[in-house]
Structure prediction request, 131 residues.
Amino acid sequence: MSEAATENQDQAKNLGLQRWVLMFYVASGALLFWMLDKMVVFGWSKFAEPNALLATAGSAIVAAAITARVYNHETVHRLSYEVVGELSKVTWPSRQETQVSTGVVIVTSVIAAGILGVMDLVWSTVTDYIY
Prediction:
Protein backbone atom coordinates (compact mmCIF):
# COMPACT_ATOMS: atom_id res chain seq x y z
CA MET A 1 0.00 0.00 0.00
CA SER A 2 1.35 3.38 -0.92
CA GLU A 3 2.12 6.11 1.55
CA ALA A 4 -0.57 8.38 0.06
CA ALA A 5 -3.25 5.67 0.45
CA THR A 6 -2.25 5.11 4.08
CA GLU A 7 -2.39 8.86 4.70
CA ASN A 8 -5.86 9.05 3.11
CA GLN A 9 -7.08 6.23 5.37
CA ASP A 10 -5.69 8.00 8.43
CA GLN A 11 -7.42 11.23 7.39
CA ALA A 12 -10.72 9.39 6.86
CA LYS A 13 -10.40 7.74 10.28
CA ASN A 14 -9.61 11.09 11.92
CA LEU A 15 -12.59 12.67 10.16
CA GLY A 16 -14.78 9.93 11.59
CA LEU A 17 -13.36 10.57 15.05
CA GLN A 18 -13.74 14.32 14.62
CA ARG A 19 -17.41 13.83 13.70
CA TRP A 20 -18.07 12.03 17.00
CA VAL A 21 -16.16 14.61 19.03
CA LEU A 22 -18.09 17.46 17.41
CA MET A 23 -21.40 15.65 17.96
CA PHE A 24 -20.48 15.30 21.64
CA TYR A 25 -19.73 19.01 21.96
CA VAL A 26 -22.96 19.98 20.16
CA ALA A 27 -25.00 17.67 22.40
CA SER A 28 -23.20 18.95 25.52
CA GLY A 29 -23.78 22.55 24.45
CA ALA A 30 -27.48 21.87 23.86
CA LEU A 31 -27.80 20.21 27.27
CA LEU A 32 -25.95 23.12 28.91
CA PHE A 33 -28.24 25.59 27.14
CA TRP A 34 -31.34 23.74 28.31
CA MET A 35 -30.09 23.57 31.91
CA LEU A 36 -29.06 27.24 31.97
CA ASP A 37 -32.39 28.31 30.51
CA LYS A 38 -34.30 26.38 33.17
CA MET A 39 -32.08 27.70 35.98
CA VAL A 40 -32.28 31.32 34.80
CA VAL A 41 -36.06 31.22 34.45
CA PHE A 42 -36.40 29.51 37.85
CA GLY A 43 -34.08 31.98 39.57
CA TRP A 44 -35.61 34.99 37.84
CA SER A 45 -39.14 33.86 38.77
CA LYS A 46 -38.21 34.15 42.45
CA PHE A 47 -37.82 37.94 42.05
CA ALA A 48 -40.09 38.93 39.16
CA GLU A 49 -41.89 37.64 36.07
CA PRO A 50 -39.10 36.35 33.80
CA ASN A 51 -38.68 37.61 30.25
CA ALA A 52 -38.54 34.30 28.36
CA LEU A 53 -36.85 35.75 25.27
CA LEU A 54 -34.12 37.46 27.28
CA ALA A 55 -33.54 34.38 29.47
CA THR A 56 -33.33 32.08 26.46
CA ALA A 57 -31.06 34.40 24.49
CA GLY A 58 -28.74 34.90 27.45
CA SER A 59 -28.63 31.18 28.15
CA ALA A 60 -27.85 30.45 24.50
CA ILE A 61 -25.00 32.97 24.43
CA VAL A 62 -23.50 31.71 27.70
CA ALA A 63 -23.85 28.05 26.66
CA ALA A 64 -22.24 28.74 23.27
CA ALA A 65 -19.37 30.64 24.90
CA ILE A 66 -18.73 27.92 27.48
CA THR A 67 -18.92 25.17 24.86
CA ALA A 68 -16.51 27.02 22.56
CA ARG A 69 -14.12 27.69 25.44
CA VAL A 70 -14.13 24.05 26.51
CA TYR A 71 -13.71 22.86 22.88
CA ASN A 72 -10.68 25.13 22.43
CA HIS A 73 -9.09 24.08 25.74
CA GLU A 74 -6.08 21.98 24.75
CA THR A 75 -6.27 19.40 27.53
CA VAL A 76 -10.01 18.78 27.16
CA HIS A 77 -9.71 18.71 23.36
CA ARG A 78 -6.94 16.13 23.47
CA LEU A 79 -8.79 14.06 26.08
CA SER A 80 -11.97 13.97 24.01
CA TYR A 81 -10.07 12.74 20.94
CA GLU A 82 -8.29 10.11 23.05
CA VAL A 83 -11.60 8.87 24.48
CA VAL A 84 -13.19 8.62 21.03
CA GLY A 85 -10.06 6.92 19.70
CA GLU A 86 -10.19 4.30 22.45
CA LEU A 87 -13.92 3.75 21.96
CA SER A 88 -13.32 3.17 18.25
CA LYS A 89 -11.03 0.26 19.19
CA VAL A 90 -13.72 -1.46 21.26
CA THR A 91 -15.23 -4.63 19.85
CA TRP A 92 -18.95 -4.25 20.48
CA PRO A 93 -21.08 -7.38 20.93
CA SER A 94 -23.42 -8.45 18.16
CA ARG A 95 -27.19 -8.26 18.53
CA GLN A 96 -27.37 -12.02 19.14
CA GLU A 97 -24.65 -11.91 21.81
CA THR A 98 -26.49 -9.06 23.54
CA GLN A 99 -29.78 -10.97 23.48
CA VAL A 100 -28.18 -14.14 24.88
CA SER A 101 -26.40 -12.18 27.62
CA THR A 102 -29.64 -10.38 28.51
CA GLY A 103 -31.43 -13.73 28.76
CA VAL A 104 -28.73 -15.10 31.04
CA VAL A 105 -29.01 -12.05 33.31
CA ILE A 106 -32.82 -12.32 33.47
CA VAL A 107 -32.77 -16.07 34.22
CA THR A 108 -30.06 -15.62 36.86
CA SER A 109 -32.02 -12.80 38.48
CA VAL A 110 -35.21 -14.89 38.60
CA ILE A 111 -33.34 -17.85 40.12
CA ALA A 112 -31.66 -15.60 42.71
CA ALA A 113 -35.01 -13.98 43.54
CA GLY A 114 -36.56 -17.42 43.99
CA ILE A 115 -33.77 -18.60 46.28
CA LEU A 116 -33.96 -15.41 48.35
CA GLY A 117 -37.76 -15.68 48.50
CA VAL A 118 -37.57 -19.28 49.79
CA MET A 119 -34.90 -18.31 52.32
CA ASP A 120 -37.06 -15.38 53.48
CA LEU A 121 -40.10 -17.64 53.79
CA VAL A 122 -38.12 -20.20 55.82
CA TRP A 123 -36.57 -17.53 58.02
CA SER A 124 -39.89 -15.81 58.70
CA THR A 125 -41.47 -19.19 59.57
CA VAL A 126 -38.62 -20.01 61.97
CA THR A 127 -38.80 -16.61 63.62
CA ASP A 128 -42.60 -16.91 63.95
CA TYR A 129 -42.11 -20.11 65.97
CA ILE A 130 -39.48 -18.46 68.14
CA TYR A 131 -41.49 -15.33 68.92
In short: The radius of gyration is 27 Å. Residues 3-90 form one domain.
